[in-house]
From TrEMBL:
InterPro entries: ClpP/crotonase-like_dom_sf, Enoyl-CoA_hydra/iso. Keywords: Lipid metabolism, Lyase. GO terms for biological process: fatty acid beta-oxidation. GO terms for molecular function: lyase activity. Transmembrane segments: none annotated. Pfam families: ECH_1 (PF00378). The keyword Lipid metabolism applies. This is Enoyl-CoA hydratase/carnithine racemase.
């Protein structure tokens, strides 16, 4: 079963994470995302895209009930899927707008950070990069995207200290560009994508690639199997203990 739903509104593709309530990321979802955005990049009739989620969350990242129990080969496949998905979205040659409908946690926030414009619904939501709290170190693509897109103060608080931000903090630190009433989120995101779609496509793709060249080079090397330290050792006993403790905490 597909974990993504794709809709077209003329020249705009709307890609929806369809694993509610939390749209937790699986290896299969990430592999599908890489494939879908590769196909959309090749379609001349698609000029821009919006990515959003079903339910109360944009995405809460990886499933902590499953990931710490993966064996070595499953971990390696997941790491490659993370690098491929985040790499594909961050390098996507057309305008990409994130319509953040709810919680954006860990890999879910990284996914939003891959977008060129980030619009959030004005709802009570959690914004965090919780990896350090559950003893999960960052694959190359996730860290490169977060480091490139966050201002130093936000990177320190989110990446290193694992803090959670509310909407106003996320806006003030530039994590999101703006927030809108939830009922108008998708309309606003599609409208923004249409405006960006009017930019000259070849110039946009070239400038985006050159603007992100340093990060994209590191991600490309990781996708090729080079320079990815997580491939040798990623999740261990510390991760299992920290993830179990996190799951026991009240919401």
């Amino acid at each position: 079963m597909s974990a993504l739903e794709i809709e077209r509104q003329d020249e705009i593709a709307i890609v929806t994470l369809a694993r509610p309530p939390m749209n937790a990321m699986t290896t299969e979802l990430l592999e599908e995302a890489s494939s879908v955005f590769g196909e959309l990049a090749a379609q001349e009739s698609v000029r821009a895209a919006v990515i959003t989620g079903q339910g109360p969350a944009f995405s809460a990242g990886l499933d902590l009930k499953v990931v710490p129990r993966l064996g070595p080969s499953e971990q390696r496949r997941l790491i490659m899927a993370l690098n491929d998905a985040f790499g594909a979205l961050y390098a996507w040659p057309k305008p990409l707008v994130a319509a953040v409908n709810g919680h954006a946690i860990a890999g879910g926030l990284v996914l939003a950070l891959c977008a060129d414009c980030r619009i959030a619904a004005d709802v009570a939501l959690q914004v965090s990069l919780a990896e350090v709290k559950v003893a999960v170190t960052y694959p190359v693509a996730a860290l490169e995207v977060a480091r490139a897109e966050l201002v130093p103060a936000a990177a320190r608080r989110l990446i290193l200290l694992g803090e959670s931000l509310d909407m106003q903090q996320a806006l003030s630190l530039g994590v999101f560009d703006r927030c809108v009433p939830p009922r108008s989120l998708l309309l606003e995101a599609v409208g923004q994508a249409r405006r960006h779609a009017e930019l000259p496509s070849k110039a946009f793709a070239t400038i985006k690639r050159e603007l992100r060249a340093t990060s994209l080079a590191r991600i490309a090397a990781a996708r090729a199997g080079d320079g990815e330290p997580r491939l040798e050792e990623w999740l261990g006993e510390e991760t299992r203990r920290a993830a179990s403790a996190a799951l026991r905490r009240p919401a």
